[in-house]
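Aim 2, interim progress: modelling of the nicotinamide-adenine-dinucleotide-bound target.
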Amino acid sequence: MTELPNSREQWETMAAELTINGRAFINGEYTDAASGDTFECRSPIDNRVLAQVVSCDQADVDQAVANARATFEAGCWSRMAPAARKQVMIKLAGLLLEHKEELALLETLDMGKPISDSLSVDIPAAARSLSWSGEAIDKVYDEIAPTPENEIGMITREPIGVVGAIVPWNFPLLMACWKLGPALATGNSVVLKPSEKSPLTAIRIAELAIEAGLPKGVLNVLPGFGHTAGKALALHNDVDTLVFTGSTRTAKQLMVYAGESNMKRIWLEAGGKSPNIVFADAPDLRAAASAAAGAICFNQGEVCTAGSRLLVEENIHDEFVAMVIEELQQWKPGHPLDPATNVGAIVDQQQLQTVLNYIEAGKQDGALLQTGGTQTLSETGGYYVQPTVFTGVSNKMRIAQEEIFGSVLSVITFNGEEEAVSIANDTDYGLAAAVWSQDIGKAHRVAKRLRAGSVWVNHYDGGDMTAPFGGYKQSGNGRDKSLHAFDKYTELKATWISLG
Ligand code: NAD
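Predicted structure of the complex, ligand included:
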């Protein structure tokens, strides 16, 4: 077995030797766009050009959807026995792990996250999503209705057909695999549209899927610049279901497209502004402070569940904020290919500017900047921001209401349970929340009243493939992960049989 690269130099060498493929994948083959258009894929680490990537449009979407439909109708995958589909899924998961250094490197170069995170979080979790869904699919049973003696009522699940999947850039391969796992396991054909900011790993796994035994045409990958390819997919009359992870703004637009076209089913995982509520009776304030720092710094704060609103009980405010700032010393932007780095580059200049604009808005609205607040490492040509903390934040301020998608923490004080719940729920979003208290009754009461799809007690960001993940309110609908995810990719059929 070859050893893992364990220094920045070794990763740089591997990066220099990497062959990067930027082509679309339709019907089992890499191809250019019908228009011949491409766009530059640049690394946010230092702004270097990584590849020319194919820019798909309507014609390519039409082609990919037609192939996906033909493959679905042919039944080579959709009617394959679940136990046989399982084997392919598990093999594909294994191939992801076999190629984990290459995939991790592509992910880090493409979107700037620390290589140690790509390697230990993104790629293993993506593989796990595929293997978990594959493992589950030959263990789920259909139902028989409680009928009179002379009838049988069967309730069966069927694959829905052609699935369009549009995914974001913050966990490119992982978000793709949260969709691909249940979509493929249930027998659908998929057209996947990765973000223009991070298309490389999606392009690469299309090839690995063929190697794993997935029939041609079942998985198609269409990179594209701007909205063109995603819009064409969302408006397509032969796409049965559209699954999406991304911003709330785009999610709303996709609902319009579904209504304007064939009323395709539409499932949305969107933004968040998650409250992390620390009561004075938290079991371990130091652990809570460490988690609060991690909750805003992990993945440069580019996380839908980032703990971006830190609600602190008034009587521990000063002590606790001091601890959080101390803990932030552990989180420093650095070169993403250095295995010691835990805060990487912001995905691109536009997102960097968004984060800096919000920092400015926080100052203008009267919040108190306690640490950070500036760009750093600009001499690299890449995009880095110091983790930032504002205190004195009112929940009405823009930095408390709008998703920043960067390491900008808004600290808000409260007094008692009622006020904590009221501030926590005073948001358009409802993706996640955390509560820290050693009073089990209080923790349960607050957890129950929080309007969020995931609630963590005395830690932050728990969960695995066994638990559903998704949002209340404008954080979306439906759930990724767990057996509940299969609901998005299947139709329920009632077959009623008269026994005469
Ligand atoms: P985005 O909405 O800008 O883009 C997401 C995807 O949609 C990309 O592939 C993009 O090309 C495509 N797209 C954009 N506009 C489109 C349009 N008009 N028609 C069709 N496709 C379009 O989001 P982003 O900036 O890539 O990702 C960050 C967002 O994702 C954040 O809001 C974050 O909270 C959210 N997110 C949510 C979850 C979750 O599970 N709830 C997980 C990760 C990220």
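The first helix runs from residue 8 to 17. The two ends are 65 Å apart (CA to CA).
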